[in-house]
Amino acid sequence: MERYGIIMAGGSGTRFWPLSRKSLPKQFLNLTGKDSMVNETIDRLATVIEKDHVFVVTNAAHADLTFRMTNGRLKRDHILAEPAARNTAACIGYAAMEIVKKYGDGIMGIFASDHYIKDESGFREVLERAVRTAEEGDKLVTIGIKPYFPSTGYGYIKRKSSGLLTEGTGAAEVEEFVEKPDLETAKRYLESGDYLWNSGMFIWKASVILKQFEKLLPDIYDCLLTIGESMGTEREREAIDEIYPKIPKISIDYGIMERAENVFVLEGDFGWNDVGSLDAMETLHEPDENGNVVCGENISLDVKDCVSYGESKLIAMIGVENLIVVETNDTVLVCDKSRAQDVKKIVERLETEGKDKYL
Amino acid sequence: MERYGIIMAGGSGTRFWPLSRKSLPKQFLNLTGKDSMVNETIDRLATVIEKDHVFVVTNAAHADLTFRMTNGRLKRDHILAEPAARNTAACIGYAAMEIVKKYGDGIMGIFASDHYIKDESGFREVLERAVRTAEEGDKLVTIGIKPYFPSTGYGYIKRKSSGLLTEGTGAAEVEEFVEKPDLETAKRYLESGDYLWNSGMFIWKASVILKQFEKLLPDIYDCLLTIGESMGTEREREAIDEIYPKIPKISIDYGIMERAENVFVLEGDFGWNDVGSLDAMETLHEPDENGNVVCGENISLDVKDCVSYGESKLIAMIGVENLIVVETNDTVLVCDKSRAQDVKKIVERLETEGKDKYL
Known about the structure:
2 copies of one chain form a homodimer.
Chain A: E1 3-9, H1 37-45, E2 54-59, H2 63-69, E3 79-82, H3 87-103, E4 107-112, E5 116-117, H4 120-135, E6 140-145, E7 156-164, E8 172-178, H5 183-192, E9 195-205, H6 206-216, H7 218-230, H8 236-243, H9 252-257, E10 263-268, E11 272-273, H10 281-284, E12 293-295, E13 298-301, E14 307-310, E15 314-318, E16 323-327, E17 331-336, H11 343-352
Helix pairs in contact in A: 3-6, 3-7, 6-7, 7-8
């Protein structure tokens, strides 16, 4: 059975401001110094899913940018343009319909465009097993991340302790998906060993997930059917532009994963990070002996546990700790590391104040 | 008797990096948002010393820059170019000789080019009395600043408690000049009421200070005599270039003020600040209700007691306190306020590392 990669690139990435902008969301940033996040996402699928079978679903406004930035990796018609952001269920349903209608059924693996994975071959090894699990039938497969601290920022997936499927794939039956916990609960999850972080990576047959839409999200399924009927005809763009913005906004987790049966999870332990805010730079780069991560030119005196990211200027720091300093072509950000999440509040204020040039 | 203003503009201002540079020392910076420090220094003499009688002594490398930046305030031949920096005694002796030889004797008032004075008319009132004190004869007059905290960063001047000279000028005889004290001593000075900060402002007749050079610094006096003999002849530049770099390096405080008799001080209380390091920005600008001083564009969230100085970029700050953030065309500085003095260490390191473009 053919394998397809679906990369979801619809995010606005306001928490990565001022690096990320409306015109350049996080997935296009080169944060590792190697390549953009979306290109790294495509490339790391390698051996498991070939580039010719990779799709990117993105906002229509970013479709051309995606084509240019992926630099020959993607076929032009593998960039699926959403006329509006309708959350992950719509996005995945659209991609599933595209595959079924235009390429016949196939295994589809769904990935965020802006996550980091340190151990890429470890990732591919788990992904290969996930694909083989999905190939077995009508299973909904996800990759859960082995937690290494009691995070309150991620949802969790609970495995059935007796749910080991086969020696071959190591997939376990899922007992439940749970929302972001408080710290005490997160500690309990970590100790139990039954819980994994929900990374948002899903693997299944396109036909199988469409059946789930039909059963659990019939309103969305109707929209997808109408779009599907137009596919390959000259009405396709028109139908998408008309129907897609009306699809109910719901996440695949809430709409299907938490309610479906036959959900299986494989444990991943390959240095995953969702790069949710600027402090993730510490994961993407090895801190020096003072705990500092430096990208660009920097000169420091008595500086500890800081992130210094300069695009063009020398950043000089004296006597500071736990700061994130970012310099871009029009902005300097100085943020206490514990407040990295609040960058989005600055973005909101800039919006309110009409300072669009900084967005 | 004619009055002359001598503005010493020989500093390199490394503590104001990255705003100050080798090619743009502190005196040329516009830190108040009104005008450059040297222009404010010239202008505030007004009514007491007219612009036509103001001289600036500066490094030969900055002579043209001084002429341009003072924007018509100075006659070209009132810019006295030092071929080498030889400390304040040499600088003042050169200016005194220039006045005596080319303009006849006169009162000369000596001022730093890079200090700030908030109450300019208060300053002029004291200066006028200082000039009249100097006109009385062979007195060496200085203006001491009424201390308002036990500073360990300034030298002090002790008045004789019985030393009030006249009701008219309010000058007091000086008992001694003392070096920068430790904190305990500074506290004692503050309490006693007899001590004033040494601001480096001096007022005397040119002929009187030259007599002091002859008596207390005869080596320097010999150099000044040789230079003086060349003045007004075509050998003048040549003589200065040859002799001046050989003048012993000594400060006027150490060389003359601490050793001379007949020294008088007037108390000044007009919001003086020597703008010695970047934290002085708090004195030059009124902090807002959160204690922040903002120059340029800034957006902040939970920020207290910070200085934000942006030349061209938006500076965004989140959850930080007591920081100085400065953005210039090629550099960003992020410095804990208590470490503002250490900016010069960064400059030294840039020199050592050969990163001249940032100096």
